[in-house]
Amino acid sequence: MQKILVTGAAGFIGFHLAHALCSAGNQVLGIDNMNDYYDVNLKQARLSELKKHNSFEFQKLSLEDNDGMAAMFEAFKPDIVVNLAAQAGVRYSIDNPRSYVTSNLDGFINILEGCRHHSVKHLVFASSSSVYGANKKIPFSETDNVDHPVSLYAATKKSNELMAHAYADLYGIPCSGLRFFTVYGPWGRPDMAYFKFTKAILNGDPIEVFNHGDMKRDFTYIDDIVEGIERLISHLPQGDAGSAPYKIYNIGNNQPEQLLDMIGILEKALGKKAVTKMKPMQLGDVKETYADIDALQAAVGFKPSTSLKDGISHFVKWYQKYY
Q1: Where does the chain show beta strands of DSSP type E?
Q2: Which residues does the annotation mark as catalytic?
Q3: % of the chain at pLDDT higher than 70
């Protein structure tokens, strides 16, 4: 049994991961600041599910709370840290830039300091496919240049990768960063397109389709994401001679889908046609995402396998039951 800290435990990925880790016999401390970026009731409902595990404990805590974070690390002494807490969302960062600096930069340094002072065996942290910006080369590879972010959110995620590398190099902390590609599924985030579309279609409201539908996304089902993280937790990055114990991985479906095809799958699952309102490209958005996952496969022998049709079907069943 390992002691694992999961930050952002009331969030979408954090909830699913904490559930899987508890089910596998680990002792999990989940922390979350329960902010109102989206429906807090959904976060509370996720926590209620997690609290059914005797091996799960929850603490309401913000990453940027210096004293609170130091005290939490001192009390829990985690073997493994999985940092999934962050201010999420590309569009929100245009209107609320300071919240990204506070959570994603000030907060992340507290994670790194906690790992440094408590001899954490492995830090696994969330990055994002957003770091690739408007890169033209497809599929996106971890070796691509990512120095041209098109949103502040992406810039903070790239900053996290650089900060983690510095700590891996200075203090020998094994660090693995995960660039997530459009994660979806039951208990998901209400600010994501598939979630908003579902609500609108059922209500008979029009859905806004950006770039007139000419977009592709590497939609990745939540169970595949969780399995990838679980495998990576026990796979420590090896520093070559003179290099830091640090590695970045794409974690995506390796199969981009047209946005309009996703809407069609959603319509079939809901048994109702969407009313579409075509719009131009949004500020900070990108036309296509596509993950090269060779590094992930080489490291842990894992490739996501859930089709978009099956994943959307699972989501719709959960949505109709929950709401």
Answers
A1: 3-7, 27-32, 56-60, 80-83, 122-128, 175-180, 183-184, 206-209, 216-217, 220-221, 246-251, 257-258, 275-278
A2: 153
A3: 99
